[in-house]
Amino acid sequence: MGLLLMLLAAVIFITAYHTYGRWIARKFKIDFNKKTPAHEHRDGVDFEPAKRYVLLGHHFASIAGVGPIVGPIAGAMFGWLPVFLWIIIGNIFMGAVHDFASLVVSVRNGGKSIGGLMEEYLGKAGKRVFLVFTWLALILIIAVFTIVVANTFTAYPQVATASGTFMITAVLFGYAVYVKKAPLFISTVIGVALLLAGIAVGGVFPAKFGYTVWVIVLLAYIFIASVTPVWILLQPRDYLNSFLLYMIILAGFIGVIAYRPDISLPAFTGFNVKNTGYLFPILFVTVACGAISGFHSIVASGTVSKQLDTKKDMQFVGYGGMLLEGMLAVIALITAAMLTQQNYMLSLSVGKPEEIFIKGIAAFTVKLGIPFEAGVSFCALVISAFALTTLDTAARLGRYTFQELFEVKKTNNPVFGNMYVATIITVGVAALFAFNKSGTMAIWPVFGSANQLLACLALLAVTAYFAKRKENNLFVKIPALFMFLVTVSAIAFLMAKNFAAKNYLLAVLALLLLGTALYVVKLARDKKVI
Fold this sequence. Notes:
globular, 4 strands, two-stranded antiparallel sheet, mainly alpha, 76% helix, two-stranded antiparallel ribbon, single chain
């Protein structure tokens, strides 16, 4: 049954890319002859053209993170069938459309972020409120992924060492390709070999530190990564990281074929799950990145649009990247569905859903002749690499957003517009949540709600963009309305739940997110852009 689900998803996604994806591309009326912002505004720091597969690597590695792993596994508490259906439908008609549209509109507007579009339609007040919302959502993203990586490094110290060697390899790769102009193919082969060698080094020299130490190290790392030119670390690390992503998807795909896991988890457990809530709206915000994610619009319009070499790559990167993430989400769901209900709930109760994926994939790879422990180390490295990629991308985007908040005409506020100050504040606020003892499972639903509400607002901006040009916008307007209903309901429920649990930090943040989002929608209604 697990094999059938995986093959069915693969066939549906490939078909969707060549049918609905192409239909959407035609609706966008892309002018392939115009230069991209990466060439028009090339500065070697943020605007820097990247080859098609390098950019896909950056985009996929940045948007994937652990979202399409943790989300579907946590959502399976409602049963595997609703999660599977939402991954398929949500990806094709909402998530991939959202990512593709955000990229297209940003490229058309010189690499502007979605916040820049908000100013055009809602004025300065609308833009600022949207940027505040985006910044708060990015704070949650940084906190969640810091917790996941710190937990992984604490549980698997060999992975911490391997991740360190990975960063060194990425910097050397960037220097070789961008400075010394070394051939990409040869550099890739050497880079991937060094990356895999890092796993062996980690096994010999495991870095054993506690959770708190790792949180501090990670926060320091993302500060540095946020302010360095993209070609030094971001592009090469994400490109090499993409090979880890492809390997884990391939290992999962072939492993499922060889292992043929039985589905033990119930297809459907009910509309109301104790201590969790109702299927609507909680399922849709728990699965989060596995189907649609607002963070993707920030990546697409924040970094990807500034690195796009040619407009011919937009469907491949924007629409195709999200479908690839959907495939990863299906594999993650299968690793949960193969467990019994009792074992599944026991694994969730310790607050580390990523371990279900790690051990599930490792079990699959045993059938491929790879020892279980080696499989665990590899999967744990991939998980940390996913999360680290999202972490430093989110920190960079948080810095962009904070700086944009304090723009004054063509100059920045000399204090808050400074990239170092903006990064310190962004990382510092995220640290409050990373050190919160609530852990991933407490923060995840609020993160998921904020993330999906961000997707709704991004779709709202794109809807307004096409409406102003009298172009068809139903394919973005309908997903925007659906996500608005889902997320407002979810975040109101979670706000009340956290207040009742006396988790005031998360409750107040949820209140701020809800208030800013509703204000943006009100402005849009007043200005009749929706």
